[in-house]
């Protein structure tokens, strides 16, 4: 499944056909891509928050998380991506309940996994967490994922384009709601479990390191 990822960016229609054929042969082949691909945003968030430092909105001071807190945030991000795709697999199956060939939940998860690839790769921006870069990347990856939804749904699910557009719009609405709810759940879970102190400034860390 990893070999299909580059094709999503330069030959999407042919790639969606190849993805369809591979999932037909082995419905669980997408799982390694899901588990390993979700590590990209998790590791990038860890590096950006604990090593590179963030300039938070409303402040010009560079801040960072402790390694322990950043590691917990990375785990929360990984779980959020996996949870979101599992839920969306069932949501895709639910939205397409009246189609001639209703997809299984696994098939829906495979579809959601490839739709999330722009978000996974776009998380590389967290390695250099500048505000202007984040604001630039978010609409690009969201737009590209939505484009693949409308392009890939009729190919992957073998639907007519007329009906696929309606179903794709429903999936888009459900996906936005799911992403928001899952993201807030894991964010609040991290805030509840992470060590106190939140972000520290660079000068604060240096002072702590010099103390005996």
TrEMBL record:
- Chain ranges of the Yip1 domain: 7-181
Naming one, the record's GO cellular component terms include: membrane
InterPro entries named among the record's database cross-references: Yip1_dom
- Protein's membrane topology: Multi-pass membrane protein
Q: Which Pfam families match?
A: Yip1
Q: Which UniProt keywords apply?
A: Membrane, Transmembrane, Transmembrane helix
Compartment(s): Membrane
Keyword Transmembrane helix appears in the UniProt entry = yes
The protein's name in its UniProt record: Yip1 domain-containing protein
Organism of provenance: Halopseudomonas litoralis
């Amino acid at each position: 499944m990893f070999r299909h990822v580059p094709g999503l960016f330069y030959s999407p229609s042919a790639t969606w056909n190849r993805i369809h054929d591979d999932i037909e042969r082995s419905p669980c082949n997408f799982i390694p891509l899901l588990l390993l691909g979700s590590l990209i945003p998790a590791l990038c968030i860890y590096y950006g928050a604990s090593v590179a430092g963030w300039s938070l909105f409303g402040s010009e001071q560079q801040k960072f998380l402790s390694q322990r807190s950043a590691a917990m945030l990375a785990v929360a991000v990984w779980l959020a991506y996996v949870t979101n795709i599992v839920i969306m697999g069932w949501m895709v199956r639910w939205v397409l309940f009246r189609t001639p060939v209703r997809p299984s939940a696994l098939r829906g998860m495979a579809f959601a996994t490839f739709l999330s690839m722009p978000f996974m790769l776009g998380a590389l921006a967290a390695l250099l967490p500048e505000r202007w870069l984040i604001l630039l990347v978010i609409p690009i990856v969201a737009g590209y994922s939505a484009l693949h939804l409308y392009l890939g749904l009729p190919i992957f699910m073998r639907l007519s384009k007329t009906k696929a557009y309606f179903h794709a719009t429903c999936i888009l609405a459900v996906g936005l709601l799911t992403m928001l709810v899952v993201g807030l759940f894991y964010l609040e879970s991290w805030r509840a479990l992470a060590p106190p102190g939140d972000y520290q400034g660079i000068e604060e860390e240096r002072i702590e390191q010099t103390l005996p």
